[in-house]
Amino acid sequence: MIQALTLPESGHNTTLGARQSGTASGRSSIRAMTAHAWHKSAVVYQIYPRSFADGSGDGIGDLEGVISKLDYLQWLGVDAIWLSPIFPSPMADFGYDVSDYCDIDPLFGDLRIFDDLLAEAHRRRLKVMLDWVPNHTSIEHPWFVESRSSLDNPKRDWYIWRDLQPNGEYPNNWTASFSDQQPAWTLDPTTGQYYLHLFLPEQPDLNWEHHDVEAAMLDTIRFWLDRGVDGLRMDVVHLIGKDFEDDPDGIAPLNHVQFNDVPVTHEHLRHIRSVIDSYQGDRTSVGEVYLLDERKMATYYGDDDELHMSFNFAFLWTSWDAAKLKKRIITTLELLGPRDATPTWVLSNHDVPRHRQRYGGSEAVARAAAVMLLTLPGTAFVYQGEELGLLDAVVPPERVVDPGGRDGCRAPIPWNNTADRGWQADPWLPFPPETDRRNVQAQQADTNSIAHLYRRLLAARRTHSALVRGTLTWMDAPDGVLAYQRATSAGDRCWVFVNTTGSPQTVAVPAANTIAVSTDRSQELMPFGGVLSADAAVVLRPI
User: Fold this and answer.
1) Position 137 pLDDT exceeds 60
2) Residues pairing with 495 in the sheet
3) Quick one: which of 346, 297, 295 has its CA closest to 317?
4) Which of 8, 139, 202, 366 is the most exposed place for a label (fewest CB within 10 A)?
5) Measured between alpha carbons, how far is 63 from 53 in angstroms, rounded to an integer?
6) Would you give the end-to-end CA distance of the chain in angstroms?
C-alpha cells in the first residue's frame, strides 16, 4: 500500500561477501534452528487475486481460480505464493480496508475453499503467505462501529481520536496517502471528535498502544497460523507505533507514511515475532517498511527477533543503471550482513508500475533484470505476470477504480489465445497490451519466451547451490555491467554478467566456462567468449 517516490542514492561502493554469520546473546538457539529456513533463499510469487484467475465466472479473480493455476506455478518453479488481501472488505482500497480478519470475502470464496487452496498448494510443495493489514481496519469493521458509537464505548480507545487544537487546527500536520495532501484526520459527527487515518477516511488507524488491540491482532495471526499458513506479508507495519509529533516543514506535503519511525514499533514487532516463533514449521514474515532511509529499514529485523524479512524499496526504485544498482546491492548487504538478516529483492508489485514499464518497455531489459533478480543472495519476490514480460494496462478514465492510481499494474493475467484470454467474463479491469503473445499458453509453447527464461533461472537456483547459499563477490567489469561471483565454501561457483547498456560490452571471462542461463537461449550450454550483447545477461558455470 504505497505510492511512487524517487529515492535518493545511498550506500558505499565496496566489495562485499554474503551475509556474515554470528549470533547475539540469547538468540543462538533460534538462529541455529532457522539457519536454513525456507524463506532465506525462496522465490515468492505474488498473486493479486482479483486479477489472477476467475473460477466463478464473474470477471473477478478468486481462490478457485488460484487453485486451478497451481500446476502452472509448479511448472514455473516458484517456492511460495503470497496472496494479496482476501479478507472481508468493502473494497474502498480493494482489500486493504479489512472488516473481518478471520474470514474470506465472498468475492473470493470462503474458508473451506481457502483450506482447499492451502492443501493443494502444500501438496505441490508451495508455501502460502497471506497479506495481513495491522495498521488500520475498514470503517465498517465491528471494532470501529463500536468505537465511534459513543465517547465512553469500551472500544473507543481501540482507534485514535482527538479534538482539534485550541487554535482550531488539526491534532497534527500529518497528511494522508491518496488524498492530494489532505489532512489525515476526519471528523466523526456522532461524537464530534476526529479520527486518524493515514490512508483513506474509510481506513481508520488502530491504536496499538491499547493492550486489547495488540492482543486482538495477535489472535488474528494465530487464527491463520493455526490453519497452516506459512507466513504473513505485513502491510505498512512500520506505522503501528506513532508519536504524533508534527512532521517538519517540507515533509508534511509528502504524507506521513514514509517518515513514521518510532521506537515503540519495535516492541510490537517483537511481540508479533514471538507469536510466529511459537509455531513449528519455519513460519515467516515480511514487512512493508516503506522508509526512505535504508539504515532505519534494517533495524526492523531487530536481533532476529522482529521481522524475518523487510521489502527493499530503495532497490525497487533504482533506475536501470549498473553503478546505481551495484551501490544499492552493496548497501543492502552491508546493512543486513552484521545482523545475519535475509535480504529481499523485488522489482514490481501491485502498488507500482511494472519494472518493464519503468525501465522503458524493452523486453530485453526485462529479461536481463530477471537474471539479476534471481541470482542475488536472499529472497526474491516475483509479481504475477512479470514472467510474461507484461506492461501496465492502459485504463480509460471510465474504468479507473483505484484511489491510488494503480490500476495499470493490476490488470488481469491473460491465460490463453482465446478471445476472452481464459476469463469467463469481461474482467474488472482491461487487459494489458500484447496479450496475443504475452499469455501463459503462448509463452509455455515458446521455449524462447521470457516465461521459459524465468523457469530456467528458477531451475538453476535449485541445481546450483552457489545461487542459493553462495557468497557474493564483485568482479571487475566495464561501466554499465554488473559482474559478480556466487560461490560456496564447498566449491560450487557461478558467475553473473548483466549488461544494463544498449550496446555490446566486452568482459573478462573466467577460463573454461559454459553458459548455464542466458537471456538468449540459443547461447546456453556453450562457452562464453566475453562479449555481452546489448541489454543481455548470462549466468556462467565452470566446466
Assistant:
1) yes
2) 485, 540
3) 346
4) 8
5) 8
6) 46
Which member of 97, 288, 492, 535 is catalytic? Answer: 288
Average pLDDT of the chain to the nearest whole number: 93
Give CA–CA dist 298/129, Å, rounded: 22
The DSSP line for 434-497 is -TTTSSHHHHHH-TTSHHHHHHHHHHHHHH-THHHH-EEEE----TTEEEEEEE-TTS-EEEEE
From 204, 236, 190, select the one nearest 3 (Cα to Cα).
Answer: 236
Q: Is 210 exposed, middle or buried (0-12, 13-18, 19+ CB in 10 A)?
A: middle
Phi, psi of 464 (to 5 degrees): -110, 110
Helix (H, G, I), strand (E, B), or coil: what is residue 205? strand
180 is an active site residue: no
Interval 41-54 mean pLDDT = 98
pLDDT (mean) for 383-400: 98
- In the predicted model, is pLDDT for residue 81 greater than 80? yes
Prediction pTM value: 0.93
Q: Round to whole Å and give the CA distance between 14 and 19.
A: 14
Nearest Cα neighbor of 457 from 390, 524, 411, 384 is 524
Cβ-in-10-Å burial (0-12, 13-18, 19+) of 543 comes to: exposed
Radius of gyration over alpha carbons of the chain, in Å?
A: 23
Residue 371, pLDDT > 70, answer yes
452: phi > 0 → left, psi -120 to 50 → alpha, else beta; which? alpha
Q: What pLDDT does 1 receive? A: 57
16 neighbors 339 (Cβ within 8 angstroms): no
Phi/psi at 186 (5° precision): -130, 135
Catalytic residue chosen out of the listed positions 97, 202, 230, 235:
235
Question: Please, which residues have CB within 8 angstroms of residue 112's CB and are 6 or more apart in sequence?
Answer: none
The Cβ of residue 505 has, within 10 Å, a number of other Cβ atoms equal to 21
| 211-227 and 263-277 helices, crossing angle to 10° | 30
Q: Would you say residue 174 has pLDDT above 80?
A: yes
Instruction: Say whether pLDDT at 319 is over 50.
Output: yes
